[in-house]
Amino acid sequence: MPTAAPEHAPGRAEADGIAARARALTKAYGSGETTVLALDAVDVDIARGRFTAVMGPSGSGKSTLMHCLAGLDTVSAGQVWLGDTEITGLKERDLTRLRRDRIGFMFQSFNLIPTLNAAENITLPMDIAGQKPDQKWLDEVIDTLGLRDRLNHRPAQLSGGQQQRVACARALASRPELIFADEPTGNLDSRAGLEVLGFLRQAVDNLGQTVVMVTHDPGAAAHSDLVLFLADGRIVDEMERPTAEAVLERMKRFDTLRAPFADGKGSPGDVRPDGGYHPDGGPRPDASPEKSPEGSPDKD
Ligand SMILES: Nc1ncnc2c1ncn2[C@@H]1O[C@H](COP(=O)(O)OP(=O)(O)OP(=O)(O)O)[C@@H](O)[C@H]1O
Predict the structure, then answer these.
(1) Continuous segment of H or E residues that includes residue 182
(2) From the alpha carbon of 279, which atom of ligand 1 is closest?
(3) The domain containing residue 216 runs over which residues?
(4) Which stretches does the entry tag as region Disordered (predicted)?
(5) Are strands 211-214 and 226-231 parallel, antiparallel or unpaired?
(6) Among candidates 47, 46, 51, 45, which has minimal Cα distance to 8?
(7) Ligand 1 close to Cβ of residue 56 (< 6 A)
(8) Is the ipTM of this structure higher than 0.90?
């Protein structure tokens, strides 16, 4: 992934409030001696109309944070709000509806339905919910993402980048309050990845959307307005108007703290030739769970 991100203006609704909020958010897995504290009393505000990236070493709690903020996972303690709605304590049925109606999702694997064309994939969540898309908004999304001449194509007839653009349009179609993107460029080559990041940027700048993106790639994070750094289940740092170089430097400090690499066999913060970064120094196995496309994935 090329590291240079274009200069961008902050999202247009920058000072327009908080899209999601967590207080003392704690998530533990397991019990007794085997308990893993994935999130340790996290306080976070996700600003509306901005593009926030979440970074941190493997196992630092990024996915758990995203899942708890999106109501995909229960919390062990603390509170989470989407807008003014406290989602901690909601029944599963209400959570499913809230996710469907108010949150858009993008995942590393695009999760498109192979038998449906692009247009049908884009509106599928709304069709399932029995909602009629706002055609003017949908047209704006389709044109912003450059999908107008691809609407009749099925996923197999589209490139990876085009498929992710369809997934992006699907996430945007209902004009959600918040879009969560989990490694959205993880399966794309650097050019397609850059394109998708550019569209997410446009969704924020031109369409007033709010995006939270989990990524391992400093080049991807550089497209955001703000990077939150997680380590051991806590937000330990943040960076406004990030550059890939600054994010990379910050990430290297985690590696230095974690493990001395005295054997000279490479550091955990290796930068790939394309500028992409893997905290393990090698390609990241695709461990993202399969999610259903309707914005209410089942937690496995
Ligand atoms: N279902 C689970 N059961 C037990 N432990 C879990 C579960 N899910 C996550 N964990 C643990 O919680 C911690 C945080 O995991 P999480 O997946 O949120 O990290 P991450 O920063 O997203 O990691 P990566 O970058 O490798 O995807 C890790 O120690 C992980 O092993």
Answers:
(1) strand 178-182
(2) 25
(3) 18-258
(4) 257-300
(5) unpaired
(6) 51
(7) yes
(8) yes
